Amino acid sequence: MKNTSILDQIGNTPLVKSRVLNTNPNVSLYFKLEGNNPGGSVKDRAAYFMIKDALDKGEINSASKLIEATSGNTGIALAMIAGIFKLDLELVMPENATKERVQTMEAYGAKVTLHPEGIEGARDYAIDKVENDNYYSFNQFANDNNWKAHYHTTGPEIWRDTEGGITHFVSSMGTTGTIMGTSTYLKEQNKDIQIVGVQPTDDSNIPGIRKWPKAYLPKIFNADKVDSTLEVSRDEAVEMTRRLAKEEGIFAGMSSGGATAAAVRLANTLDSGIVVSIICDRGDRYLSSDLFK
């Protein structure tokens, strides 16, 4: 019997074709189901790369005090993997985080601190701990292993599973690791593949999709790697999240609904093509919110 660990199950997530939402017969729209990762989201990839690299370089060990600011999914992934490696981890989240996220992090053994000033305040809190209290932060917003995880895994998987036929890649932008790494790989294979980032409209708050103030723009972000951006409203994201569940059987969070709304809109404008959109996580971590009500 093959000797595998839970970490071996990160990646190689399914790519499934839209049956209902895409109505353009000349375009194929595929969803990459990142909720099938063991920690339930696309962030398992980056979390594993960041922790493994820090361990391999001797930057952290079981005596280290680790801290990370997160809006949710990265924290869950870090908590799962830190627990496996017996690492002491504190996660700082906006205080409006759903209870499922907090409880999942705690179940994996992490300490959770809720901050009243959103993700920006959580980031400032973590930076202060690093500078003044001898904590170590992976700093996903500036850590090259965030995007490299997708360069080495997500991009190659999409290229393989579309048999090199992908024409457009659509991804929500938060830390931007997914879109940066996947873009880098896909453009190396075919420079004509279009990379489309998804952002919220100015009046919308969509968990997992951000339009960052300049001071907080992730350092790993390179605008040259994104060919175009599409904006979605919170109402669009919510409606499409619900439709994903009811019509496609894909149970996901609001950022996935936002990306899907953009991907469907894009597909309707094309004469032909193969569009791949990221489904970031699973919907079960949003059940205490009003997302599905």
TrEMBL record:
**Pathway stated in the Swiss-Prot or TrEMBL entry:** Amino-acid biosynthesis; L-cysteine biosynthesis; L-cysteine from L-serine: step 2/2
Q: Name one GO molecular function term.
A: cysteine synthase activity
Instruction: Tell me where on the tree of life, at the top rank, the source sits.
Output: Bacteria
User: Is DNA-binding there in the keyword field?
Assistant: no
Can you tell me which residues bind pyridoxal 5'-phosphate?
A: N73, G174, T175, T176, G177, T178, S255
Report the sequence similarity comment from the record. Answer: Belongs to the cysteine synthase/cystathionine beta-synthase family.
Protein name as it appears in the record: Cysteine synthase
Q: What is the lineage of its organism?
A: Bacteria, Pseudomonadati, Bacteroidota, Flavobacteriia, Flavobacteriales
